[in-house]
Specification:
With 323 residues, the protein is of the alpha/beta class. It has 3 domains: 60 residues; 95 residues; 133 residues, Sandwich (Immunoglobulin-like), CATH 2.60.40. 38% of the residues lie in helices and 20% in strands. It has 8 helices and 8 strands. Strands 3-2-5-6-8 form a 5-stranded mixed β-sheet. A hairpin with a 3-residue loop joins strand 2 and strand 3. Helix 1 crosses helix 2, helix 3 runs antiparallel to helix 7 and helix 6 runs antiparallel to helix 7. The longest helix is centred in the last third of the chain and has 31 residues. It starts with a helix and ends with a helix.
């Protein structure tokens, strides 16, 4: 009996290998057994000669994929909405303005916006006697200028004096932030030699009680002074040429340059998102780029306006038209 079962399993495997189901195979074997199940056709009609034996098995239903007019479009194959593309191009213009704004910040002594204006605007509202001025005076040959008189003439705070020490260093406190005139002088053999500079004193930053301004200066050689006009006073006045660009703390200019690099980085990132948005029309990219453009400022806040307008207009485009 076990041999019959093993033989039947072999027949089932053979029929299944021809592409029929196991259920059809068992039904076919059962039909071949006839009334007397002990009499089984050894070949079950599976001879190689198909002309002699007809195999009566159900037809195999093959899966057939029907063609359809529907098509799945990839994002790259979708038609870009012209309004979305127009907003992305406008953002690209804003990125260019933001980039130029950053370049402008990298040039503290030129351009539309200068650190001098920022310091002056902050100093105008700063409290009096909240600035400290310190620095070093050296001669052109590198020798410290010892016992030189330092005088600060402030527009709002009057005059303040100090004397340089053996290393040419000085420190003056209780100054009022803003525009001031710095006089440096020395008396030698009944003659007075001096120079004047126009400068800006830093206001306090954040919650600090005092603003610090540090400027190192070089005192010119005596042969660079002109005539004394019989007064015994030899003086070089640099203030006329410093009307637009008074002396400032170099660290303030460095901070200003760092801000410029920040604007350039933000504008560059916004430009990359804008280019991607031009190709795809994706509203998410447009809105992200508009934020970048807004914070890149731009000359006279032009990028701020472009970023704000584009960000608002992006919400007027239906989502299915921009994604």
């Amino acid at each position: 009996m076990n041999d019959d079962n093993n033989l039947e399993e072999q027949y089932v495997k053979q029929i299944v290998s021809m592409g029929y189901s196991e259920e059809n195979a068992k039904d076919y074997i059962k039909s071949q057994k006839g009334v007397d199940e002990t009499e089984i056709d050894p070949n079950l009609g599976l001879e190689n000669n198909k002309d002699e034996v007809e195999i009566k098995l159900p037809e195999i239903n093959e899966s057939v994929f029907a063609s359809s007019t529907s098509k799945i479009l990839l994002p790259s194959e979708r038609e870009v909405n012209p309004y979305a593309r127009g907003l992305a191009i406008l953002l690209l213009i804003g990125c260019l303005a933001g980039f130029l704004n950053g370049v402008d910040y990298l040039s503290p002594t030129s351009g539309i916006i200068r650190p001098h204006e920022l310091i002056y605007a902050q100093a105008s509202g700063a409290p009096e006697k909240s600035s400290i001025f310190l620095g070093t005076v050296i001669l052109e040959e590198g020798v410290p200028a010892e016992n030189y008189t330092i005088n600060i003439r402030s527009e709002r705070g009057g005059n303040h004096f100090s004397i340089t020490d053996s290393e040419g260093k000085f420190r003056i406190e209780n100054l009022t932030p803003g525009l001031s005139v710095l006089d440096i002088a020395i008396v030698e053999e009944d003659n007075t030699y001096g120079i004047s500079h126009r400068m800006l004193l830093n206001p306090p930053a954040g919650f600090e009680p005092f603003g610090f301004t540090q400027i190192d200066l070089v005192f010119p050689e005596k042969n660079e002074f002109g005539t004394d006009n019989g007064t015994g006073v030899f003086w070089i006045d640099y203030t006329p040429e410093q009307m637009e660009y008074p002396l400032i703390d170099p660290s303030a200019a460095t901070y200003y340059s760092i801000v410029g690099y920040g604007f350039i980085g933000i504008a560059t990132l916004g430009a990359l998102l804008s280019i991607l948005a031009i190709n795809s029309g994706n509203l998410g990219l447009i809105r992200s780029a508009s934020v970048m453009v807004f914070f890149s400022m731009g000359p006279l806040y032009s990028s701020c306006c472009i970023g704000l307008v584009v960000g608002l207009l992006s919400f007027m485009i239906p989502n299915n038209e921009g994604f």
